[in-house]
Amino acid sequence: MFNKMIAAMLPYFPKKLIWIFSKRYIAGETVEDAIRASKDLNSKGIKVTIDILGEFIKNLSEAEKNKVEYMELIDRIQKENIDGNYSLKPTMFGLLLDKDACYGHIREIVAKAASYNNFIRVDMEDSPCTDMEIELYRKLKAEFPKNVGLVVQAYMKRTYQDLENLMDIHSSETPLNYRLCKGIYVEPEAIAYKKYEEINQHYLEDLEYMLKNGVYPGIATHDKPLIDGAYKLIEKYNVPKNMYEFQMLYGVTPELRNSIVEKGHTMRIYIPYGKQWFGYSTRRLKENPKMASLIIKALFFR
Ligand code: FDA
Prior knowledge:
Layout: H1 2-9, H2 15-22, H3 31-42, E1 47-52, H4 60-79, E2 84-88, H5 99-115, E3 120-122, H6 127-143, E4 148-153, H7 159-166, E5 177-181, H8 196-212, E6 216-220, H9 224-236, E7 245-249, H10 254-262, E8 267-273, H11 277-287, H12 289-300
Helix pairs in contact: 1-11, 1-12, 2-11, 4-5, 8-9
Bound molecules: dihydroflavine-adenine dinucleotide.
Binding site for substrate: 89, 283-284
GO biological process, one term: L-proline catabolic process to L-glutamate
GO molecular function: nucleotide binding; proline dehydrogenase activity
């Protein structure tokens, strides 16, 4: 209860204080910071996916600016020979303001990544975006079958059905490519599972569906029981190592991450960077209320 109260108060805390605790989750404010973090992980045999922080813009001129930033990032990362791809949030390109303009921007970014034979992952945001983000993926995959992927959220009651519906654009040459995560936004009970056990059960059902149908999953979790469940499914369906990967967030559970790498599985770390780190950080801190209570202790019990 106490931790939840603190989590609710996080947006009102001084930015400097939040930074002290959130810097472990963010590479930094600049592309150089993202490159440094990526090279460090690459040197340990770990791939990355780089994300420029920002979401839910208020006017379309911001979308244009964000697109230019991604285009420059892609050129820069390719020059640096980093073993990594990119993630982006459609609301950063105006999904909720002008769907077609948003599509145009993201299409240009995917085309740029495709010109380097690279890949863009479309993050999944909250439920008002779900249908539009699936539609975006469908359109992009039709034009760039190997260069785009989507995130799906195990807590959404619709997800299994979405997986089945999307099979019409799957083929063994250009498999569907999903990142499967639990889901981080606060959603109503009518559309989302709420209990830990329920979410985990559906996570493993979704994963099994992907593995048995030749869909490429990014198994994105830090939850040990889910990772153990994934190992069992990989064995059950005898899935080759190049047909799945594990994914984790920058700065979270490094020991567990290393144990997966040591077993010879592909691991990719999500590296966020940029000036708009505050919203991302407060979400991560809400997810982990123990960290939030450390903040309040730092504030009042110095
Ligand atoms: P769970 O929350 O049960 O955590 C399991 C354990 O992991 C915890 O007990 C703790 O030990 C550790 N842990 C988890 N989070 C931690 C943290 N912040 N700090 C410290 N320890 C922590 N969501 C979404 O809605 N759309 C998206 O596009 C994405 N994208 C995405 C990419 C990647 C690579 C990952 C790993 C996750 C996402 N997510 C996401 C977030 C995801 O939905 C989910 O909220 C978090 O991954 C936490 O869920 P876990 O599966 O780790 O389990």
